[in-house]
Automatic annotation (TrEMBL):
Molecular function per GO: metal ion binding; oxidoreductase activity, acting on CH-OH group of donors
Source organism, top-level taxon: Bacteria
Keywords, in A-Z order: Cytoplasm, Lipid biosynthesis, Lipid metabolism, Metal-binding, NAD, NADP, Oxidoreductase, Phospholipid biosynthesis, Phospholipid metabolism
Name of the protein in its database record: Sn-glycerol-1-phosphate dehydrogenase
GO biological process: phospholipid biosynthetic process
Organism: candidate division WOR-3 bacterium 4484_18
Length: 450
């Protein structure tokens, strides 16, 4: 087995499909993805690239009406010579566009049965549907992204709408991600911006995870943070070039997103890519689904707003001393049941999630002050300042305020103060609420600053 040392330059691509000992957490990690390829005219090379990755010749190409036009038809054409190709094009059912909704599963399952592999041609929706079906049929899935819009191409989870609830299910990761730089560079700008904003969650998610691990003793590994940082440095302050569709910057963004997905495989959970900032976005999705309405904006754009909230919270926390932390924690009493009444008939689902982290929340006054200096050193050091985040997002022309994505002040207030209740994961939102910091964020909202 290959040994990696802490100061080695980490080339994660050399670690695909092999076990290695981690210098950070000292555990063994395994990334089952065999190939991550990005290049010009990659589409023409698909038959060659997958020749050793797929046994058998029957391939289902999964796309929707848009992604089929963008690349699905060309994939079909290049594969037809060597493979028996079946295209499946999804059309919206009762919504403006196709979502990763369970109602699409029966037709995909029916077509994918007796196939040797699924090639997904699309972004988040198609990727999640394809990964889920391939996993249930125990056949490999290969992703051909049409947009650098999120990190699901390499992750080991699929987010699906089941009933009116979005659930994240563990699935086998893709066998390969083959990216044609020309195609993803021509993706709708909002999808490129969404990918960029989603990737900014990394620093905050890892910081949240580190804090949670210090408080609860759950496992933590710094490798996920490390691997994505190098790619991130190549695009994070180049939002202006990103929206000009600069292929080099878009390629780096795609790399950052793919490493974000891989970081979740390494961690065995979504923690290194999803913290409190994601709860804000999940809350907005949940609200829309409960109302039977369409989502407010692309996942990443909503996450970008969440990142702004998290950055404000970290900014306020990092100047506090452990004495002040103790003082703030002892002065606030929250009536959780009263807060959760907001969720109406869905209280049981929410309450079940929130109860998972209640033991650690109850112990905060005892644990947090004594761990505060360590948290500052090991978690706060990972995040960007609020001003940096605003600069990064502005340069990439991403939404900066709730209003920009159609969320009114009242709902924004609930998103800030209630998002913590919808998941059992402990995040910075919990600490901020327990210390009364969220009230200060809400003040900013009422002043029209966020
Ligand atoms: Zn590790
Ligand atoms: Zn995300």
């Amino acid at each position: 087995m290959w040994e990696m040392r802490i100061h080695d330059k980490i080339d994660i691509y050399s670690l695909l499909d092999r076990k290695f000992n981690c210098p950070f957490c000292e555990k063994e990690h395994y990334i089952p993805i065999k190939l991550i390829f990005i290049g010009k005219d990659a589409i023409s090379r698909i038959p060659y690239l997958i020749s050793t990755l797929v046994r058998g010749k029957r391939i289902l190409i999964l796309s929707d009406e848009i992604t089929y036009r963008v690349a699905g038809n060309k994939c079909e054409e290049v594969l037809r010579e060597d493979y028996q190709v079946t295209p499946l094009i999804l059309y919206p059912k009762g919504t403006k566009r196709v979502y990763a909704d369970e109602k699409y599963l029966p037709e995909i399952l029916a077509k994918a049965k007796n196939k040797d592999a699924i090639l997904t041609v699309g972004a988040g929706t198609i990727t999640d549907l394809g990964k889920y079906v391939a996993d249930s049929l125990k056949i490999p899935v290969i992703c051909f992204p049409t947009a650098p819009s999120m990190n699901a191409y390499t992750s080991g989870v699929a987010a699906l709408l089941m009933g009116r609830l979005k659930v994240t299910l563990p699935v086998q990761p893709t066998r390969a991600v083959i990216t044609d730089i020309t195609i993803i560079s021509q993706a709708p700008l909002d999808l490129i911006k969404a990918g960029f904003a989603d990737s900014l969650a990394k620093a905050f998610a890892n910081a949240d995870w580190r804090i949670s691990s210090l408080l609860t003793g759950e496992a933590f590994c710094l490798l996920p943070f490390k691997i994505a940082t190098e790619a991130e440095n190549k695009y994070i302050d180049k939002g202006d070039e990103l929206v000009q569709r600069d292929e080099r910057v878009i390629s780096s963004l795609m790399e950052g997103l793919n490493l974000g997905g891989i970081s979740m495989i390494i961690a065995g959970k979504s923690s290194p890519a999803s913290g409190g900032e994601h709860l804000i976005s999940h809350f907005l999705d949940m609200y829309a689904h409960f109302k039977g309405a369409e989502i407010f904006a692309y996942h990443g754009l909503q996450v970008g707003i969440g990142v702004i909230i998290s950055s404000l919270i970290y900014e306020k926390l990092k100047v506090l001393s452990s004495r002040e932390v103790r003082h703030l924690l002892s002065h606030r009493k929250i009536d959780y049941d009263k807060e959760m009444k907001f969720f109406g008939e869905h209280v049981p689902i929410v309450s079940k999630e929130f109860t998972k982290k209640l033991p650690v929340i109850k112990r905060l006054p005892e644990l947090l002050p004594s761990l505060w200096d360590r948290i500052k050193e090991e978690a706060f050091s990972l995040v960007y300042t609020h001003q940096q985040i605003v600069e990064f997002l502005s340069k990439a022309e991403c939404p900066l305020r709730f209003d920009d994505i159609g969320v009114n002040e009242e709902l924004a207030y609930h998103a800030i103060t209630k998002a913590r209740y919808i998941r059992g994961r402990f995040t910075i939102l919990d600490i901020a609420d327990e210390m009364g910091i969220l009230d200060e964020i809400v003040d900013k909202l009422h002043k029209g600053e966020i």
